[in-house]
Amino acid sequence: WFKCPPVLSLPDIDLSLVIPLMIHGDGADSHRRRSFMITTVGSVVTQGSMWDTRFVCYVFDEARAAEDSLATLDTWVCWSLLEAQLGHYLDLDPFGRPYAPYKDHGRRGLIMGRYRAVLAIHKGDEKYVQKTYRSSNSAVSRNICMVCKASSETGPLLYTLHCVTAPHRQTLMDTPTFIEEIAGVHTWVQLPGWGIQVLCHDWLHVVDLTLVPEASASALLELCHEGIFGLGNLD
């Protein structure tokens, strides 16, 4: 990520004073199947648990949100990231309106002294990434991957070919291709320095909530067959 944001190429940038940030988004089911979208921000470089340094950007009820609610909130988050990247406050909001109410209340000059912060990781579960980048690629679609040409159809690009030399591993998209074919010119890709390398899946959903239960169930079946549990009876 050090090669991505253009702010890092400026001659007055001391990399020891640049803070890499992670934006994490996820949906949370609640009472009566209502879903809340939760987005947090935190530093990638921490001591102890990253959860201790997370800050909530926004939480909203998806059932009561307007069509452009997510895009509007993300626009404000990206604008704040731009200010953190520059290291100082801007005098206009993301819609070109002056910050008149804050002009005389300290919202000017440097934000963190000599420190700056840049977006290093943007991750979330599949639904969050789909909504944020307006993508139709998913585990149940023909094109199942957000960043390559892996397919669910039988052929050389079949996603189940996991070896190092799998053909779909040679079809990783670059940033322009991702914008042209997947996301279009929307909120996050307009953030200066944004690149496809910052887009990540949430490993909690990939490993803990998907692979681990499957592996555990397979292990339990084997143990039952061997008579370790249930005396060999799967019932």
Describe the structure.
With 235 residues, the chain is α/β, with parallel strands linked by helices. Helices cover 25% and strands 17% of the residues. It has four helices and five strands; from the N terminus they run βββαβααβα. It has helices at 69-86, 126-133, 175-183, 203-225; strands at residues 18-29, 35-43, 55-61, 116-124, 199-201. It has a five-stranded mixed beta sheet. The protein is globular and about 75 Å long. The N and C termini lie far apart (52 Å).
Order of helices and strands: EEEHEHHEH
Distance between the termini: 52 Å
Q: How many extended strands? A: 5
Uncertain segments of ≥5 residues (pLDDT<50)? none
Helical residue percent band: 10-25%
Helical element count? 4
What share of residues are in beta strands? Answer: 15-25%
Largest sheet strand order: 3-2-1-4-5
Shape: globular
Average pLDDT confidence is 81
Cα-based radius of gyration, to the nearest Å: 22 Å
Largest sheet: 5 strands, mixed
Look at the helices and sheets and give the structural class.
Answer: alpha/beta
